[in-house]
Specification:
The protein is mainly beta. The protein has two helices and twelve strands. The strands form three sheets. Strands 5, 7, 8, 10, 11 and 12 form a six-stranded mixed β-sheet that branches. Strand 1 and strand 2 form a beta hairpin.
């Protein structure tokens, strides 16, 4: 029997569902596991260990820090309740041999008509401020980068997302494959 290990494993998973599990040997010498043994068989009740259970942690939304200007109250949370870069995990490594990435922006409510989005790479504005929720990086060098997005109204910063740390991986000019050419 090729999958004889499958039944005991399945029974271990289902222990919370079945109150009693029995084991016996059939006429062919095979071990049988069941929750209802036949009446004419001497079945042994199995005592299985408790199954570990855990709750999945609830997803936390990243807060969006605000850069207040001189005309705004310091306690303002900004006009957008959600402003973040999506599609990349914090601290992940991204292979981008040309240093170009296309980043998706999650912004709620939708971007107001007078606002534009600006990428911020390593604390400096990167590229043009535009109305698209897809922003591109250009020619990022290899290594660690802090990437955020700002909402601008004219030249004024309305709100800025939490920074996302990414590690850019690019092909090396010193790689053996490159030297062989």
């Amino acid at each position: 029997m090729r999958f004889s290990w499958l039944l005991p494993s399945a029974l271990l998973v289902c222990t919370g569902l079945a109150a009693e599990i029995y084991q016996y040997t059939d006429a062919n010498g095979n071990r049988v596991f069941t929750d209802k043994p036949p009446l004419d068989v001497n079945a042994e009740e199995l005592k299985l260990p408790d199954v570990n259970r855990t709750q999945m942690p609830k997803a936390r939304k990243k807060s969006s820090p605000v850069i207040a200007d001189e005309n705004e109250d310091e306690n303002t949370s900004g006009p957008y309740r959600q402003l973040s870069i999506t599609g990349h995990e914090e601290g992940s490594t991204v292979r981008a041999n040309d240093g170009n990435l296309l980043l998706d922006i999650d912004i709620q409510p939708p971007l107001s008509s007078g606002h534009r989005l600006q990428l911020v790479v390593d604390g400096q504005p990167h590229g043009e401020a535009i109305r698209s929720i897809k922003l591109a990086t250009h020619n990022l060098p290899r290594g660690e980068h802090s990437i955020a997005v700002r909402v601008l109204s004219g030249e004024r910063v309305v709100q800025e997302s939490s920074a996302l740390t990414l590690f850019i991986q690019r092909i090396s000019l010193n790689s053996p494959a490159r030297r062989a050419r």
